[in-house]
UniProtKB/TrEMBL annotation:
One of its GO terms (molecular function) is glutaminyl-tRNA synthase (glutamine-hydrolyzing) activity. This is Glutamyl-tRNA(Gln) amidotransferase subunit A. Heterotrimer of A, B and C subunits. HAMAP family: GatA (MF_00120). It comes from Nitratireductor pacificus pht-3B. Residues 1-446 form the Amidase domain.
Length: 454
């Protein structure tokens, strides 16, 4: 009731939730009470969570913040959310996001932007919470849920976590099932939690992760007790500092934050090693070929026949066109056009195939570093703190918006786990995050090292 009241009071301003499931929350909480009274509560019994609108929730609003999915209520539950409910968690509602998870500011949502609960000192200007999981990050930051689900294709868990002073982990590709999560770029998409601290993130990920026969890319490995990793010493661990992440024009305060992070690691007994990831500079352009290519294919299913919105036309082809024209927003259309272009017969080799090769090189960069005994890599999470709503630079130039992902996309391209952890405030009092990148399926190392920073 306290969380529902907090949502009802704050959501008019923050716009973090696109649907609040009052009745369902109360009935799930009652069922939790009954289980607790019998002494058989699960790991998340009674914990109220917000769910990103990308996860299919049975009979509940699921629209990926898009107009084209108007009225869609799936008859099935995503594996990730089913896992959470099986452990006793309670659903508060569905969280706002960029349309189909495409964006870095939560401004592409059909439901309008989410407002970051943080403001710069002495300013009343509204800031973005980051994207695409902006609703998840804002809701956790503003105490409108105890934790949230999120997804990350190129940074959408870690960048909003960094912008809101929360913790977000993108686990290794395959750690969480993608079944029932609306697909953006299937070879990059991973679910993960956004939480108030590293421990909460560890507890949530333990529950979300599972192998799943309905997602053949999910991996059959035991899910460790991540919480047990927290508080373990990092003495003797080797932390890599990649020189290619020291970008031209990186703001001094980001550089200073990174330096502080290095010192904290060293003080905790870790060994700092300079490393090189030479293909880093190609990651962003390659990502913005691979992700739109997969998106254009995944989004072909929204044709007015099977889901949501249908705009009648003269004939079926006209109906498809009218529906897609009215149903998709500008950024989604841009991605579909880029994607179909790079996959087209004449350009496939020059763009898509090339980007796939670059992807392999990026993956190899990481493999070489890990082979040399590096346990985790420390970088900034974002190139800046949260920026203003309707920022002119970003709005007029999509490439500027894409630059937000500069430190995060490499991790998705290589399928690795990455965590963003709050590490301090900038000169205006806004949160900044550091990122730790780990070896495949070694999320425990990330929880251990991130806990030293938080
Ligand atoms: N900002 C990136 C994009 O727009 C990443 C999005 C995401 O991780 N879902 O594609």
């Amino acid at each position: 009731d306290a969380y529902l009241a907090a949502i009802d009071a704050a959501n008019g301003k923050l716009n973090a939730y696109v649907a609040v499931t009052h009745d369902k929350a109360r009935s799930m909480a009652k069922a939790s009470d009954a289980r607790l009274a019998k002494g058989d509560g699960g790991a998340l019994e009674g914990i109220p969570l917000g769910i990103k609108d990308l996860f299919a929730t049975q009979d509940v609003h699921t629209q990926a913040a898009s107009h084209i999915l108007d009225g869609f209520r799936p008859r099935y539950e995503s594996t990730v959310t089913a896992n959470l409910w099986a452990d006793g968690a309670v659903m508060l509602g569905k969280l706002n996001m960029d349309e189909f998870a495409m964006g870095s500011s939560n401004e592409t949502s059909y439901y309008g932007p989410v407002i970051n609960p943080w403001r710069a000192a002495g300013s009343n200007a509204d800031l973005v919470p980051g994207g695409s999981s902006g609703g998840s990050a804002a809701a956790v930051s503003a105490f409108l849920c105890a934790g949230a689900t999120a997804t990350d294709t190129g940074g959408s868990i870690r960048q909003p976590a960094a912008f809101t002073g929360t913790v977000g982990i993108k686990p290794t590709y395959g750690r969480c099932s993608r079944w029932g999560t609306v697909a953006f770029a299937s070879s990059l998409d991973q679910a993960g939690p956004i939480a108030r601290d590293v421990r909460d993130a560890a507890i949530l990920l333990k529950s979300m992760a599972s192998v799943d026969a309905r997602d053949t890319t999910s991996v059959d490995l035991p899910v460790p007790d991540y919480e047990a990793a927290i508080g373990q010493s990092i003495k003797g661990m080797r932390i890599g500092i990649p020189k290619e992440y020291r970008m031209d024009g990186m703001p001094d305060e980001i550089e200073a934050l990174w330096q502080k992070g290095i010192e904290w690691m060293r003080d905790a007994g870790a060994e700092i090693v300079d490393i090189s990831l030479p293909h880093t500079k190609y990651a962003l352009p390659a990502y913005y070929i691979v992700a739109p290519a997969e998106a254009s294919s995944n989004l072909a299913r929204y044709d007015g026949v099977r889901y949501g919105l249908r705009v009648p036309g003269k004939d079926i082809a006209d109906m498809y066109e009218q529906t897609r024209a009215a149903g998709f927003g500008r950024e989604v259309k841009r991605r579909i056009m880029i994607g179909t272009y790079v996959l087209s017969a004449g350009y496939y080799d020059a763009y898509y195939l090339k980007a796939q090769k670059v992807r392999t090189l990026i993956k190899r960069d990481f493999e070489q570093v890990f082979d040399q005994g590096v346990d985790a890599i420390l970088t900034p999470a974002t190139p800046s703190a949260a920026f203003g709503i309707a920022d002119q630079d970003m709005a007029s130039d999509p490439v500027k918006m894409y630059l937000n992902d500069i430190f995060t996309v490499t991790v998705n391209m290589a399928g690795l786990p990455g965590i963003a952890v709050p590490a301090g405030l900038d000169a205006k009092g806004l949160p900044l995050g550091l990122q730790l990148i780990g070896k495949p399926f070694e999320e425990e190392t990330l929880f251990r090292t991130a806990h030293v920073i938080e």
